[in-house]
Amino acid sequence: MDTTEKYWVLQTANSAYAFGLNQAGYLVHCYWGKKLPDLSHYPPPAESLGWASFNGPTQVLQEEYPAYGGMCYHEPCLKLTFADGVRDVLLKFDSARVLENEVVISLRDVYYPLRVELHYRAHPDYDLIERWTEVVNEGEDPITLKRIFSAQWHVPANQPYHLSHLTGRWNDEFQLVREPLTAGTKILESRRITSSHHHNPWFSLDAGQTTETSGPVWFGALAWSGNWKLAAEVTNFGTTRLSLGINDWDFAWRLNSGESFVTPSAFAGYTEGGYGAASRNLHDFIREQVLPHGPISHKVLYNSWEATFFNVDVESQSRLAEIAAGLGVELFVMDDGWFNGRNDDATGLGDWWPDPIKFPQGLQPLIQQVNRLGMEFGLWVEPEMVNPDSDLYRAHPDWILHFPTRKPTLGRNQCILNMARPVVQEYLIEKLDHLLTENNIQFIKWDMNRNVSEPGWADAPGEPREVWVRYVQGLYRVWGELRTRHPQVIWQSCSGGGGRADLGILRLADQVWVSDNTHARDRLAIQTGFSMAYPANIMEAWVTDADRGNLPLAFRFHVSMCGSLGVGGNLLEWSEEERREAADWIARYKKVRDVIQLGDLFRLAPGVIQYLSKDQKRGVVFAFQTSKDQSDAAAKIQLQGLHPDWTYEVEGLAGNHPGSFWMSRVLELPLGEFESTMREIQAFH
Ligand code: DGJ
Prior knowledge:
The chain is of the alpha+beta class. It is built from 12 helices and 38 strands.
């Protein structure tokens, strides 16, 4: 972090981000790109020029944090109403605090007692800048916030950009889209009270020539698990900017005297190493700085959902557990169906104690059996939900999100608890804490199986539209409290698959269940999209019975081995031969899982993924032939990331050669129809 006069440069290992005050006192973005040799090389703030009487200076300038005020027609970061009804904010620089790798810029409204603090933190090892904003009401009268984004990011002007993002729906998440940005604003958002399957709060921008291995990429993500918005705008002055933050749709927040509002963090980075490097930067950052347990690899788990659905009891689970243990599974997870009255999806949610008919002696007998088999025990919960047919709902029908005059819309026969309410938070903390205290549970899958409707908060103490944010804060509180009380537990975030994967939830969840779609070929596309932002160790992937009989078991295992391997098929139906083969793959996976889960990931070609340990000594390549087109029955690949001078062996390929050799050759891995291959790479150094 360097500062001269009113000019600040945040430097990371390879990039720099600069901004400063111009002569007219506007806080103006100056530079975001490759780190330059000398501080004097960064450009000065642009001067304020209008454009005829139709565009004021702020329309032409690249302001760091534009507020709605004056002649502002592009997307502002801040929009609010003062108590007297004035809806115009005029921020002026007040002061700056400079810390190591961090700067805080304080702005104040020229008339009203309103302070806005812009926080910038450089994460040098990851070429990332973190930004968040705090608004403080220093006056007597309340202020109503209508929009408060975390940040606005400006990319170099006068060139066209492509925006990459992840879109989809339930069973079809994380589909990677890359599209040109043209004049106007492209909005990506969630209005679903969670980050959602629909769009994921991640982006990247490139200027056209970028590939997986080279070229500039500006990329980022928002650490928020509720409604969010990304506005990518190409202005009428040839500049491109991207705003990111909590969604302002149906949002309002009453900021009383002395109160402040702090946004979630938005992270963004710059690399010249192409999309691959951008992903690896995020992977490392998430593993090392975001995940609650840091960079750890995960156990091979078995999940009983697709085998038994709601028909769980000690006997059915024990039979599965015995086979799973024989395969080498390390963690047995009992999914939905275990709690009070839960026989189908219409009952029980909210009553988080063992069903007295299925588990008359509680969960202990099953857990002990699983532990005797040498496995840890995990459990499924869906805390935010309640079925109308449950003891909880009968006792507290008013605890759900609802409008009193409207019949609540059911999704999967369930309503959403109003997590904004402390009484709901306390109930969940108490029930889940009890469950975790009474039982030897090492893993919790936290599910959320519907999106919002009727977002009403009867008797809200303040502005009812705060519910969008207070819900997420309540969720974070409950989950955080449980984590603190039970630090040994590994948590998985699931929302009908990948409906809640974001840097906010990853402060609480160690893993994500990426999709309910477990068809191996569909999964490849889903996993590729996921890998743009998220690392392999958090990507839980099961081998199920989907594709059984259609695709080789090896293919299905290879797909799941690209992340954190799990098994989710009905093992009772698997033949001896299938079980033997599964055991072999699991054993093989355990040998390389650290490389896969914690190493660097390279997307070599569509359907070809390479992993390399951080010390560059061990690697694995997976290649998949996903079409029937046999005109080209080989994956043609070029390895990446090896040490050029070290000698490597690539399993199944003749000769030991220096890394430079392997990286310059196009290797052919023969693959028949729907075949796959896994090759280990070993350095001799
Ligand atoms: C949706 C999840 O994605 C599934 O894996 C399973 O846990 C079901 N919910 C259980 O209801």
